[in-house]
Specification:
Radius of gyration: 19 Å
Strand content: 5-15%
Largest sheet: 3 strands, mixed
Number of domains: 1
Number of strands: 5
Shape: globular
Distance between the termini: 56 Å
Structural class: mainly alpha
Helix content: 55-70%
Oligomer: single chain
Number of helices: 9
Amino acid sequence: MSFAILLPAFDPVALNLGPISVKWYGLSYMFSLLFGWFYCRHLAQKQRLWGGKSPLTADHFDDLLIWVVLGVVLGGRLGYVLFYKPAYFMENPGEIIATWNGGMSFHGGMLGSLLAIWLYARRHNLPVLSVMDVASAVAPLGFLLGRIANFINGELWGRVSDVPWAMVFPDPEAGGVARHPSQLYEAALEGLVLLLVLRFLTHKKLALLKPGLVTGAAIAGYGLARIIVENFRQFEEGSGLMIGPFTPGMIYSVPMVLLGGWLIYRARSTKSEAGRTAA
């Protein structure tokens, strides 16, 4: 057997606050939403990025934060139920609300947050695509921290591998064999790389002047990154739609790539300033 890194069995509980146990996954959600809120406020106030006065204010994102929290949590849970284990939850409906047992979908969380942003923008008569662009620019922070939490928890591991950086995960279900640390691949591609790409678009290419461009790049970028990493991630049998060699993560990401591509094309073809056009 080739050399492999043995991952320690980290405690899934990051800290205890009296009777309350705070898990790493919960911390990843909390910090990603907190950092995202600060970054959104920064983008909204940076007039240079908008070619003048921004159509949004920092205060808009104070209220939007609650909407996004609900969208991420509800969308993430319902996405997991519907996309990955519908048969199980049909037989055990009481488990649907048992989020403390784990089970969240990144695809569902993204769809839920986009819906929440759309509803909020429409309710407050804000340019929908501009609000989505700002929120999308910070979304990779959540992907980055979420995947790091997956790694610390020793879950959602990769396929068996003999690469020098392969790891043996402590969970008995991992079989005690060396595997790709696919959580770190996802953290790098879906998180760090995508965050830098979107930062380049907003600050160097002034993409916020073309509503929908950043949103399209974020959606398509996540879809492409997920499709790539699915080649290294272990597929859980009986979990979601499987067509030939294509995993559920790949299948659910294809529409995202198409939608993101369409938004990019639409934004580049539309001669309108940021905030002038609402979708």
